[in-house]
Design brief:
single chain, alpha/beta, 24% strand, 17% helix, five-stranded mixed β-sheet, 194 residues
């Protein structure tokens, strides 16, 4: 398997072919990061991995003053949001009680290129049962198994980034949690991918 998401083909064929169905629990959650322009591709990946779309979470990227951070790219509009598609597989794949109280909107400041908001990890842990696996991880996180070419404790961005978020251990996300056997030595029932 390819450990660096940037090395995957942009058509999504290689992402769809990742053995996620073989490594997640029968009953599982998927939290899949999708840029707005790639929404149809995200839904295709979700289906290929055996998950049914249920809901989404909108990440609104804001400036220090709380306004929309219009520095994002977009072919039609300046994108200030990204989506996390939430899907389930298996029977009784409900969220934990916290999921009933969680709104589907998060507003936080943008991080370095491709790095997603840290708040999503707390949300996944509160709403979905573990254990957790992050694929294409950038750095590590206590209580999570991580995989990818940047999945180690020494990870730090190697490019200019926003000063308020420049720190090591920041990463991109595909998280999985559960209790089956798989190549990662855990039984995933939650997947977050970005």
């Amino acid at each position: 398997m390819i450990g660096d998401i940037e090395a995957l083909d942009k058509s999504g064929v290689e992402i769809c072919a990742l053995p996620v169905p073989a490594i997640v629990a029968e009953t599982a959650h998927l939290d899949l990061w999708v840029p707005n322009a790639l929404l149809p591709d995200g839904l295709r990946v979700m289906a290929a991995w055996g998950f049914a779309y249920k809901a989404n979470i909108v990440w609104h990227k804001i400036r220090k003053d709380g306004g929309g951070d219009g520095r994002g790219v977009g072919f039609y509009f300046g994108n200030v949001t990204e989506l996390v598609l939430f899907g389930t597989r298996g029977k009784n794949a409900r969220t934990r009680d916290a999921g009933w109280r969680q709104v589907n909107y998060l507003a936080t400041r943008k991080r370095e290129h491709s790095r997603k908001l840290d708040e999503i990890y707390d949300l996944v842990e509160a709403c979905s049962h573990g254990p957790y696996l992050e694929m294409f991880a950038r750095g590590t996180r206590p209580g999570w198994t991580v995989w990818g070419s940047h999945a180690d404790a020494t990870y730090a961005p190697t490019w200019k980034t926003y000063v308020h978020n420049s720190a090591s251990g920041r990463r991109r996300t595909l998280a999985i949690a559960g209790n089956n056997t798989n190549p990662f030595g855990l039984a995933p029932s939650v997947v977050t991918f970005g």
